[in-house]
Amino acid sequence: MSSINCFRTAKAPLHTFASVSRFRYSPNPIVSVLRRKSSPSFVTLRVVSSMAYEKELDAAKKAASLAARLCQKVQKALLQSDVQSKSDKSPVTVADYGSQAVVSLVLERELTSEPFSLVAEEDSADLRKDGSEDILQRITKLVNDTLATEDLTKAIDSTLTTDDLLRAIDCGTSEGGPNGRHWVLDPIDGTKGFLRGDQYAVALGLLEEGKVVLGVLACPNLPLTSIAGNKNSSSSDEIGCLFFATIGSGTYMQPLDSKSEPVKVHVSSVENPEEASFFESFEGAHSLHDLSSSIASKLGVKAPPVRIDSQAKYGALSRGDGAIYLRFPHKGYREKIWDHVAGAIVVTEAGGIVTDAGGKPLDFSKGKYLDLDTGIIVANEKLMPLLLKAVRDSIAEQEKASSSL
Ligand code: AMP
Ligand code: MG
């Protein structure tokens, strides 16, 4: 196969601005207005391509959809198998590595002119150890079978060898940072949900000069219709959603496995917290449910929490299934960028706000980790000030209680 062009940080293309978050984008005609921070009265008219990130978005959608197909196949076999117990981590490992390899190979194939940097969760170290030959063969076959469904093995010259697979996985070991472009991938976000047969996501985003400019979330088990007030969706619900967003262009959703037209989505417009519902991690080990419950009761939220795994929460929020997301990991946990990059832009382009518990925007420019003031919260513009106050009060109460112990 052709050599894989990863690990180098690509420069921003000419059709984008360094201060992308500040430009207003008018898709038709192809003109945008850029107001400079340093001289607010100075307005420049510049012609930009309405197709900014179009090629990258096509590649990202294809990569995430194909990786999701691989994950679906593994999850189906896992759930049908009488032999593999649900605590067996090996199917997850196969799917994690396989998904990462597929995304890496598809990006490489679709963005041939640009070397790329990929910050992803997995690396091949364990697969290179003695005794890993069987699992390596299994993953390679799975990836080859998945690429063959899109005729991509032909495009990649020939069937992948195990060495090709290891190289593709290791494309994801970039460190990220504030300069240039970095793709960011969680090949299976919500591993525990994946094992339970519940929600998980393939989450792929693109950072440019430390800012998120593109995000795609493939959520194979998320119903196409709202999950509001209906955590246990009926079996007749169609499932499988693909959310995508590019900076300044809004958020869209389409069925994961069909060519139907995407629809534009918006976050909930609820202004009264009593009418809001909130999302949190299914796993109590990932987020403090007690703290969320205290915040929700201060706000007057009446609905019980909606607990689901993975960045599927960000997808569901972007279309208004719920109005608030609360995430408060236990002390000492450091959030990774791949758990939030894609979800954050999917929500913000749909009109939502994503901040840390102190109200600061998330900073994805610091490498693999997010430096956070306790927790991550999401809401619409109207609810955010009330939410921030409730968060502040609840944290203060909690600290007071623990200092008096
Ligand atoms: P969620 O289902 O929203 O809790 O998110 C799943 C993600 O949480 C996983 O992909 C992990 O990267 C991340 N995670 C793993 N352990 C923890 C932890 N102790 N606290 C918070 N998040 C975690
Ligand atoms: Mg994750």
Structure explained in plain terms:
Pathway: Signal transduction; phosphatidylinositol signaling pathway. The chain has 405 residues and is α+β, with helices and mostly antiparallel strands. It has 2 domains: 54-80 and 88-264, 2-Layer Sandwich (Fructose-1,6-Bisphosphatase, Chain A, domain 1), CATH 3.30.540.10; 273-403, D-Maltodextrin-Binding Protein, domain 2, CATH 3.40.190. The protein contains 10 helices and 14 strands. Helix 1 (54-80) packs across helix 3, helix 2 packs across helix 3 and helix 2 (90-110) crosses helix 5. The site of magnesium ion has 3 residues, from strand 4.
Detail the topology: elements first, then pairings.
Elements: E1 31-35, E2 43-47, H1 54-80, H2 90-110, E3 118-120, H3 133-148, H4 152-155, H5 162-170, E4 181-189, H6 191-196, E5 201-208, E6 211-223, E7 239-246, E8 251-255, E9 263-265, E10 278-280, H7 289-299, E11 306-307, H8 312-318, E12 324-327, H9 341-348, E13 352-356, E14 376-380, H10 384-403
Parallel strand pairs: 3-4, 10-11, 10-12
Antiparallel strand pairs: 1-2, 4-5, 5-6, 6-7, 7-8, 8-9, 12-14, 13-14
Helix pairs in contact: 1-2, 1-3, 2-3, 2-5, 7-10, 8-9
The protein binds adenosine monophosphate and magnesium ion (MG).
Pathway: Signal transduction; phosphatidylinositol signaling pathway
Keywords: Hydrolase, Magnesium, Metal-binding, Multifunctional enzyme
InterPro entries: DPNP, Inositol_monoP_metal-BS, Inositol_monoP_superfamily, Inositol_monophosphatase-like
